[in-house]
Amino acid sequence: MMTAFCVALMILLTLCAYGAPLRLHPENPHYFLFRDKPEVLITSAEHYGAVLNLDFDYAKYLETLQRDGMNHTRTFVGAYMEPESAFGIARNTLAPAAGRLICPWARSNTPGYAKGGNKFDLTRWDDAYFARLTDFVRQASDRGIVVEINLFCPFYGDGQWNISPMNAANNVNSVGKVSREKAYSLTESDGLQAVQEAMTRKVVTELNEFDNIFFEIMNEPYVKGVPDDWQRRIADVIVETEEGLPNRHLISQNIANGKAQVTAPHPAVSILNFHYAWPPVTVGMNYRLNRVIGDNETGFKGTADEHYRREGWAFILAGGGLYNNLDYSFTVGHEDGTFQYPNSQPGGGGPEVRKQLRALGDFIRGFDFIRMKPLGAEINAGQARGWGLADPGRQYAVYLYDPADESRDVRAELSLDAPPGSYSVRWVSPVSGETVQESKVDHGEGRLELTSPAFRRDIALAIRARP
User: Fold this and answer.
1) Alpha-carbon span 182 to 199, nearest angstrom
2) pLDDT tier at 407, thresholds 50, 70, 90
């Protein structure tokens, strides 16, 4: 039996190795505190198969993220994977080749898994898998990259369910003799609830030492109506497991596509993640909850960079704390993010959009953003749409987007509620991050009126009080 001294020593050694885990910033819980610094998570990252796909070189991938200024990635643990044809994604990292899936459960001696090799034994763990998972997180940690550990995903169609280890056809444990719609249920899953809770405890325990992770309960539970009581139970399991471990990690819940108003979040859920959150109205709808609001999947707006740049800049400047663009340029053999995906792809990605999101990260981190709050309706930008943050009288960060024809240059007439004072004004290109124009303004009573330089599609603005 472990003594109190041993527990205390274990906690001390863990904290010395990695420091306190990622947490909400105590002065502004809409943002993170990571390694003693305020932080936003901004990235353009692969389609979640870096660990479960044995052919994926995650070391090269993480090196690319670091080189391109990205500080976040999302990975599925292996309870869910996809067939090659899923969603029309070319070279899908969530669709490992036959025999190349690795997941938390060990293989049995019985042949017959639908995607090659032996069936799974849901009562035994695969040590090689957990070595790969922890090495992935460790290498991400070395590069300052935060990993979202996504535990589960609903089965969108029979193609996903037919290759799941939880399907009775693919395991030797005589559990999971249900339809895919019943796989996540507290009462109707034919033994899978115990399997799911055990896997959650194992993953949470194996990763407890790391400071650069948070856990997401399930990807898109709302798409297939996964019950809220099941999601709350998994959150409880995470909390219960960590009660006996040195560290406590943040928990994320994926709320909705687009927007939704959250009314009664689980008390342990600290991150509210949305998908395809354009326009970013969901930030304002849920800001009162004092949690990080994230947009952790994009897509279905074509393959061009513009939409995903716009979605990221607008979301962060509306008060979001996390943005993860789904980047299809990362594939097996192209872990450096250079895959030339077809125009039929459900989203975009590539070096250029990562450059544009790096510019966003540099822009927001140039402010003391912990002191800032959303401007909301206080921006008047004429025909341009505007989102911004302010620490009134000290600093303002604004993003403007022109929804008109992209072939023309425009100027925006901007009006902000600001107290009298002397300010420096800097207009920035969201594409390059470079300064377009700088000036100084002595502002008297009334609203601060500014005219932008000519721009095409979007422009950003930094205003700071002068001494």
Assistant:
1) 18
2) confident
